[in-house]
Amino acid sequence: MKNVLLRVQNLEVMYKTRNSFIKAVEGVTLEVGVNECVALIGESGSGKSTVANAILRILPENATISHGQIIFKNKNLLNLKEKEMRKIRGKEISMVFQDPHSYLNPVLKIGDQLTETIKTHNPHLTQKEILEKAIELLSVTRIPDPQKILDRYPHQLSGGMAQRVAIALALSSNPSLVIADEPTSSLDLTIQAQIMKLLKRLMETFKISILLITHDLSLVSNIADKVYVMYAGKIVEEDFMERLYKNPMHPYTTMLFEAVKKLQGISTSFNSIYESESTLELMGCKFSNRCPLVKPLCFRKPPPFLSIATGKKVLCWLYAQGDENEQV
Q1: Between these two residues, 98 and 237, which has the higher pLDDT value?
Q2: β-strands 177-181, 305-309: how paired?
Q3: Is the pLDDT score of 325 beyond 50?
Q4: Is the pLDDT of residue 269 over 50?
Q5: I need a labelling partner for 188 at 20 to 30 A (CA). Which of 14, 50, 82, 304 fits?
Q6: What is the pLDDT of residues 278-315, one digit of tens each?
Q7: Confidence of residue 184 (pLDDT cuts 50, 70, 90)
């Protein structure tokens, strides 16, 4: 049995609007093991980043965690006071954000930002040791001439170089877990592949765990151990990476793979997954108005989350046993 580092259990997050509440995350359960990479995949608006922000407790003011637990190293983060949470946020759990240029301070040199972060988490180090560690972190992220980069401002760096700096910042506290939230979405394809290869190497070198959040299935095939597929606030399928690629079972997961093939110029039998109406008013499965395999039952009743095999679960009526009438 794997040693679990992070367990999110039955998480629900509500956003308050002017006239109502919107449930953005509904009953999400996932685990990240020690020295494991777990991918959380879904299209924009599915709730992925909300899960990440809930783990670090950096949700906006109009958001409320209405139910669930977030267990990290046997502590429920939702029960910690803010002072206790600050000892974990950015130190034991760090984050790599989507756009590095918006994350890095534009008026401070890279060296100032990196050394300040290192000093915050390592107050016992001398100024010389802090500088040496900064150069070392830039070196391990494969930044050429790190001494020169320390003297530059963020706007003087390319997107890929800035993201490497952001990764170096995330590693500066020697974290156990790095949450990478769409870390390559603003980069071109060549740089995306380089960043993913870098994350994999750093995971193995520093023995860290990674929760990788992305909408792109093609990015995670060589790094993720396990995948959770998210749609409309719910986990609809979870499986080990290798098996999911060979045998996706939920229609949404299948359509994600077909979308990748379509982008690669391979014909697909499904319509675009982005041609859909709102899922907010659906009484049954939230994917029913987009699903090519939909049944009448799917519109009437939420589907069960079924265990198909070890490590394999799917939220779908297609795999429920018995007649439709027996399930109502």
Answers
A1: 237
A2: unpaired
A3: no
A4: no
A5: 50
A6: 444 567 899 988 899 999 999 989 999 999 988 999 99
A7: confident
Whole-Å CA distances, 128 to 124, 132, 253, 294: 12, 6, 50, 63
| Residues in CB range of 191: below 8 A, 6 or more apart | 159, 160, 163, 184
The beta-carbon contacts of 315-323 under 8 Å, at least 24 apart in sequence, are 315/234, 315/235, 315/236, 315/237, 315/250, 315/285, 316/236, 316/237, 316/249, 316/250, 316/251, 316/285, 317/285, 318/249, 318/251, 318/293, 319/249
Sort residue 174 into left (φ over 0), alpha (ψ -120 to 50) or beta.
Answer: left
pLDDT at 111 > cutoff 60: yes
Question: Do 293 and 282 contact (CB within 8 A), yes or no?
Answer: no
Q: Give how far Cα 302 sits from Cα of 14, 120, 125, 299, 328, Å.
A: 19, 48, 55, 8, 10
- AA identity, residue 62: N
Q: Tell me the two tokens of residue 262.
A: 């379509």
Q: Is the Cβ–Cβ distance between 142 and 193 less than 8 Å?
A: no
In whole angstroms, how large is the CA radius of gyration of the chain? 21
Which domains are present in the chain? 4-92+178-188+203-327 (3.40.50.300), 100-172 (no CATH)
Question: What phi-psi label fits residue 121: left (phi over 0), alpha (psi between -120 and 50 degrees) or beta?
Answer: alpha
Helical H segments across 247-317, by residue range: 251-263, 296-300
Mean pLDDT of the chain: 88
